[in-house]
């Protein structure tokens, strides 16, 4: 099944007329899908219901959408994630937008696929805190869900397992993609689609500011991991980032490069949610990090680019052109019984 993601024939044909150096910024026509979980309407609809269903949490107060809501840039607009009860998680909620294009999931990249990612927050004690050994029997008692799982995954015969649960949620998450933003129209050849200030910001983004070193191609991410100098001295706990998955020196304090698509909607910024504005976030990256010295394993890309305030503002003007209209989505209010 080829998913066109809402692109019209006109927009698809416009891609053909984009200059060679601009085509890399344009969205692929198809979202990558695993062979054993091709997207179908039944799987997407089932995954959407599960994504918004608060019964998947221990006290039935939060859902996947609580921390990754479509009206909040697919985040929660909070510094760190909410968890069951009154607790908080240790990291900022990353956007779900365009995660289908990523080859690593979570800030530390500890899993590769959306299927692997989908179950993590459900069981995490700092998020939904619902053990799968409790959740799976609970879902199997809901006849409405059993029918939907049988329709979406005939091989399940209506028996809900953690594997099918993960596949369904992942199928919906792959539909969460950025829409056509002003920059996309610019990349397709409409040079009036963004302002002169934003155009100059795009030039700075690619060249003097070196933003493109980490934020490249359609999703404005290299898919890699970097320490951008947000903390100095020895790191502990979750600030160790990818190093916690395996203690490789190169992974010390590094975190995944986030997409910049719809970045205007997903404040506060960075893995710790410590920065409130896009201007400040841009300034930190362009000036060599929050801390210049005593930062162990800081990325070689994070150096002071000697940008003026005016140049920072132009880059921010460009980043604003990456915001597109809301994707078409009817949020469910009724769930299977």
Short account of what is shown:
By secondary structure, the protein is mostly helical. The chain contains twelve helices and two strands.
Features of the shown structure:
337 residues; mainly alpha; Cytochrome Bc1 Complex, Chain D, domain 2; 2 domains; 12 helices; 2 strands
Characterization of this structure:
The chain is mainly alpha-helical. The protein has two domains: 31-173, Cytochrome Bc1 Complex, Chain D, domain 2, CATH 1.10.760.10; 182-320, Orthogonal Bundle (Cytochrome Bc1 Complex, Chain D, domain 2). Helix content is 32%, strand content 1%. The protein is built from twelve helices and two strands. It has helices spanning 9-16, 20-23, 41-52, 64-67, 114-123, 132-140, 143-152, 162-173, 182-187, 196-206, 278-286, 309-320, and strands spanning 225-226, 255-256. Strands 1-2 form a two-stranded antiparallel sheet. Helix 3 runs antiparallel to helix 7 (143-152), helix 10 packs across helix 12 (309-320) and helix 11 packs across helix 12. The longest helix has 12 residues, at 41-52. Mean pLDDT is 92; it is low at 1-11.
């Amino acid at each position: 099944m080829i998913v066109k993601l809402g692109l019209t024939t006109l927009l698809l044909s416009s891609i053909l007329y984009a200059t060679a150096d601009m085509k890399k910024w344009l969205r692929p026509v198809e979202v990558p899908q695993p062979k054993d979980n091709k997207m179908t309407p039944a799987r997407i609809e089932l995954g959407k219901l599960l994504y918004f269903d608060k019964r998947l949490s221990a006290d039935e107060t939060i859902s996947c959408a609580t921390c990754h809501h479509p009206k909040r840039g697919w985040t929660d607009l909070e510094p760190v994630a909410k968890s069951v009860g009154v607790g908080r998680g240790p990291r900022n909620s990353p956007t779900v937008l365009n995660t289908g294009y990523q080859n690593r999931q979570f800030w530390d990249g500890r899993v590769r696929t959306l299927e692997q990612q989908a179950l993590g927050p459900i069981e995490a004690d700092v998020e939904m805190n619902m053990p799968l050994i409790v959740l799976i029997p609970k879902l199997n008692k809901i006849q409405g869900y059993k029918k939907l799982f049988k329709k979406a995954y005939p091989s399940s015969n209506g028996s809900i397992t953690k594997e099918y649960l993960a596949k369904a949620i992942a199928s919906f998450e792959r539909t969460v993609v950025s829409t056509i933003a002003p920059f996309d129209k610019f990349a397709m050849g409409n040079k009036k689609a963004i302002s002169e200030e934003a155009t100059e910001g795009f030039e700075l983004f690619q060249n003097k500011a070196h933003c493109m070193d980490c934020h490249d191609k359609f999703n404005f991410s290299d898919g890699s991991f970097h320490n951008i100098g947000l903390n100095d001295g020895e790191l502990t706990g979750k600030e160790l980032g990818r190093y916690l998955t395996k203690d490789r020196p190169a992974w010390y304090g590094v975190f995944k490069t986030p997409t910049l698509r719809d970045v205007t909607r997903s404040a506060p910024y960075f893995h710790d949610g410590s920065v409130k504005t896009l201007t400040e976030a841009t300034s930190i990256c362009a000036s060599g990090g929050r801390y210049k010295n005593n930062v162990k394993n800081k990325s070689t890309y994070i150096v002071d680019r000697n940008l003026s305030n005016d140049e920072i503002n132009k880059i921010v003007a460009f980043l604003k052109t990456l915001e597109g209209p809301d994707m078409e989505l009817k949020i469910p209010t009724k769930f299977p019984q």
